[in-house]
Amino acid sequence: MNDRRRIIGTVVSNKMTQTVVVRVDRTVRHRLYGKVVHRSEKLVAEDGLNCQPGDRVKLVESRPLSKRKRWVVETILEHGTVIEVPAGGEEAGGAT
Q: Over the stretch 28-68, which tens digit does the pLDDT of each residue have?
């Protein structure tokens, strides 16, 4: 195995071609106060596996592929569920 960094995150968006946005959550302790703080960052990754929003994926670092893209999706760990909202913003079959 190589020395490239690997991180786990959740797919937030797949609206670009061959690219996904992945949110990586981490927990850190505040330097001064000692309180545990939750941090997250959004990374842009190359997607060759056709990921969907909500999927948990493992990313591996790579050479720069574009201005912001420095990661590649290595595997899909679990498929997520996506809640779809009906078009028009109202429930189907509601009173009119």
A: 999 999 999 999 999 999 999 999 999 999 999 999 999 99
Cα 40 to the center of its chain, rounded Å: 10
Residue given tokens 């797949």 in the structure block: 14
Q: Name all domains of the chain by residue range, CATH numbers in brackets.
A: 6-78 (2.40.50.140)
Residue type at 6 in one-letter notation: R
Query: In the structure encoding, which two tokens stand for residue 22, read together?
Result: 């992945």
Per-position DSSP letters for 10-76, written without gaps between them: EEEEEEETTEEEEEEEEEEE-TTT--EEEEEEEEEEE-SS---TT-EEEEEE-S--SSSEEEEEEEE
Q: Where on the phi/psi map is residue 54: left (φ > 0), alpha (ψ -120 to 50), or beta?
A: left
